[in-house]
Amino acid sequence: MKNLITGIHGFVGSHLADCLLAQNEEVTGLARSMTDNGNVMHIEDKIQVWVADVNDRVALKKILAEVRPERVYHLAAMSFPPDAEKEGSEAFATNFTGTLNLLQAVKELQLNCRVLFAGSSEAYGIVTEQENPVKETQILQPVSLYGVSKASAEMLAQSYFLRDGLDVVRVRPFNHIGPRQNSRFVCSAFSRQIAMIEKGADAVMQTGNLESYRDFMDVRDTVRAYTAIMEKAGAGEVFNVCSGQAVSVQSILDGLLEISGIPIRIERDNKLYREEEPVRVAGDLSLLTEKTGWRPEIPLKQTLHDLLSHWRENS
């Protein structure tokens, strides 16, 4: 099976490439440049990467015409919510218009392929305690600009299924974590700080809100879910990709500190708080399990161990 991953150089894209290669699949990727390729250097001889921005409609269509993939995993996005708040126009250009360009090219080229659109649980917005764990039937009420951009792009993807009959499936991943994640995200931020302290930096960590609860899951389980959905889901369906459990950010920090074993002073940094954050969010994975048989396999403790090991080697 010929697979195309947009955003292959990214955190999730690189792990998806690993997963597909392990399944003896053919992997082609799309990236904005060849310079930021650290996440895929270990497999660069096994994949083909094309350079183009999803906002470049002409270049994107030309690549799709050349590759003619059977499955497209559309992961390319502005993925860090604070960036989207600062650069709203750019976030919509990448997350919405990039999706439009991809789907329109698939339609115009009459490609016989399935497209997986990677949305976000941020599309749900603020959820109440009673609405946890969140089901796919939950009304989308995004609050952040990132969530709005993802919800809008998801609706667009569904419209191509409903109107044009494109074989599109949608996913709403929750908080996936693991090796190679950018240190701007909370679990990687903690891990990087601890790794640097282990190497002699001041034994002080800056943290944001430790009282919030999130649905954290290993990215390697996430990409396994994506491949299972591509294989077994029906066209037009949407799935939460999650662990089903809400875990406090405090417990993530405690777990990393326990693995490290060194004494560290914790300091709160108000700049790291996001005002619109809900207190607790967990996803309902029952639909995904029912349709595909997939379940998360990697324990959180193992994920944290692997994440800290990554930053010990890369900081």
UniProtKB/TrEMBL annotation:
- Tell me the keywords, alphabetical order: Lyase
**CDD domains, per the entry:** GDP_MD_SDR_e
Instruction: Name the PANTHER family on file.
Output: DTDP-D-GLUCOSE 4,6-DEHYDRATASE-RELATED (PTHR43000)
- What name does this protein carry? GDP-mannose 4,6-dehydratase
Citing just one GO molecular function, the answer is: GDP-mannose 4,6-dehydratase activity
E.C. code: 4.2.1.47
What species does this protein belong to?
Answer: hydrothermal vent metagenome
Entry-linked InterPro entries: NAD(P)-bd_dom (IPR016040), NAD(P)-bd_dom_sf (IPR036291)
Where in this chain does the record put each NAD(P)-binding domain? 4-305
A Pfam match: GDP_Man_Dehyd
